[in-house]
């Protein structure tokens, strides 16, 4: 592989960070730090792609940006060893997205299920940014020529699009890439999605067929990273289940989405497999399993909530982390932009 391995991923500052974001993404961000150079981004430019009513306006955006940064750090991301920053501080994201806009095809974007879901029936009224979201995401990743991207299951299709864009850029500009020194004609890597663990798609606590989501109108559908111990315990107790006892084997979770979801959450939080969890709780009633799950959630999440609270109470400190991270990110981004511009044929000041 001709590329140095590098990890990139992002989280939108759209409020209500939840257990799905934590288990599907942030936990894996933390793990990847042991083996890779990592860049973790608060993607504030993505956050404004929906209506103001969704992202909440300027004051809310800044507050949420600091809160996601605090969640990264409270969960164990080290901003000294790795890079933590907010997207809008590095102009290369928007610049590379423009080049990629001219590489990506309308048909590719038209197939994106997240756009279809978020735009709903009123597509004419959706922002151009929402349609273009996956192209900006490709630029986020490839600006750092990242090779690995830890994400939840819902982002798989967008990652495939990033790979298509990288591949088409390499093909379209192959001769120019070679004439600028890359003999193999490859400038961008095809980034690999890392979708790992037993909770890559955490489902709503009210409906096991729906993804746990920041924008769900029911707060009881999700566990927010900022929830206190009582709220967490109450939400788990109220979580929808079915009347059957828990099965003893994983096969018994098929067609039981709520049970499957709760067992998956338990497994992910305790770093065990679902089979192992069922060996302990199989055959028992949901009530005792829920008590154990509530206790586990509180043990794992309450310290994070406490640390987040402490960190957001000092916005100056958070901003200095973001500024420093942005400086380091910009240095890498600048190199990619210079080379991309040369490859495309844009004249630049030398
Ligand atoms: N339910 C989930 N299970 C597992 N992983 C999830 N992720 C999101 N929801 C789940 C992962 O979290 C990372 C950051 O996601 P994002 O900032 O792009 O947020 P999102 O996907 O927009 O979050 P929501 O809650 O799904 O928002 P809305 O309500 O707007 O639809 C990503 O890696 C994502 O896969």
Q: How would you explain this protein's 3D organization?
A:
Helix content is 54%, strand content 6%. The protein is built from 15 helices and 5 strands. The strands form 2 sheets. It has a 3-stranded parallel β-sheet with strand order 1-2-3. It has a two-stranded parallel ribbon with strand order 4-5. The mean pLDDT is 96. β1, α1 and β2 (37-42) form a beta-alpha-beta unit. It starts with 5 loop residues before the first strand and ends in a 6-residue tail after the last helix. With 350 residues, the protein is mainly alpha-helical. It binds adenosine-5'-tetraphosphate. The site of adenosine-5'-tetraphosphate (AQP) has 19 residues, from α1.
Widest sheet: strand order?
Answer: 1-2-3
Which descriptor suits the 3D outline?
globular
- Low-confidence residue ranges: none
Strand content: 5-15%
How many strands in all? Answer: 5
Distance between the termini: 31 Å
What is the chains' assembly state? single chain
Order of helices and strands: EHEHHHEHHHHEHHEHHHHH
Bound molecules: adenosine-5'-tetraphosphate
Amount of helix: 40-55%
Helical/strand content category: mainly alpha
Q: In this structure, how is the largest beta sheet organized?
A: 3 strands, parallel
Radius of gyration: 21 Å
How would you state the average pLDDT, rounded?
96
Number of helices: 15
List the helices and strands and how they pair.
Layout: E1 6-11, H1 19-32, E2 37-42, H2 44-47, H3 52-55, H4 58-75, E3 83-86, H5 92-101, H6 106-110, H7 113-119, H8 128-142, E4 148-150, H9 156-172, H10 174-179, E5 192-194, H11 229-238, H12 257-270, H13 274-281, H14 286-312, H15 315-344
Parallel strand pairs: 1-2, 2-3, 4-5
The chain binds adenosine-5'-tetraphosphate.
């Amino acid at each position: 592989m001709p590329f140095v391995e590098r990890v990139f991923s992002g989280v939108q500052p759209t409020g209500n960070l939840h257990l799905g974001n934590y288990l599907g993404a942030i936990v894996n961000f933390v793990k990847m730090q042991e083996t890779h150079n990592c860049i973790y981004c608060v993607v504030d430019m993505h956050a404004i792609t929906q209506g103001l009513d969704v992202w909440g306006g300027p004051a809310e955006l800044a507050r949420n940006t600091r809160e996601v940064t605090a969640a990264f750090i409270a969960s164990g991301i080290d901003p000294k060893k790795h890079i933590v920053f907010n997207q809008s501080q590095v102009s290369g994201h928007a610049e590379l997205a423009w080049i990629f806009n001219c590489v990506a095809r309308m048909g590719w974007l038209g197939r994106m299920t997240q756009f279809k879901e978020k735009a709903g029936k009123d597509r004419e009224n959706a922002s151009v940014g929402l349609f273009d979201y996956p192209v900006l995401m490709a630029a986020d990743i490839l600006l750092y020529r990242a090779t690995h991207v830890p994400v939840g299951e819902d982002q798989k299709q967008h990652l495939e699009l990033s790979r298509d864009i990288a591949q088409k850029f390499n093909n379209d500009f192959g001769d120019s890439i070679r004439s600028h020194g890359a003999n193999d004609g490859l400038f961008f890597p095809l980034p690999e999605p890392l979708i790992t663990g037993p909770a890559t798609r955490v489902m709503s606590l009210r409906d096991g067929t729906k993804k746990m989501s920041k924008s769900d109108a029911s707060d009881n559908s999700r566990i927010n990273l900022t929830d206190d111990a009582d709220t967490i315990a109450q939400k788990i107790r109220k979580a929808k289940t079915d009347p059957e006892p828990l099965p003893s084997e994983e096969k018994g979770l098929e067609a039981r989405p709520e049970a499957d979801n709760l067992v998956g959450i338990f497994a992910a939080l305790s770093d065990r497999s679902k089979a192992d969890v069922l060996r302990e709780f199989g055959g028992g009633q949901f009530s005792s399993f829920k008590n154990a799950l509530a206790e586990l959630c509180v043990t794992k999440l309450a310290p994070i909530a406490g640390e987040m609270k402490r960190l957001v109470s000092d916005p100056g400190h958070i901003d200095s982390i973001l500024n420093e991270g942005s400086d380091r990110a910009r240095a890498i981004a600048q190199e990619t932009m210079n080379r991309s511009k040369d490859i495309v044929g844009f004249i630049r000041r030398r």
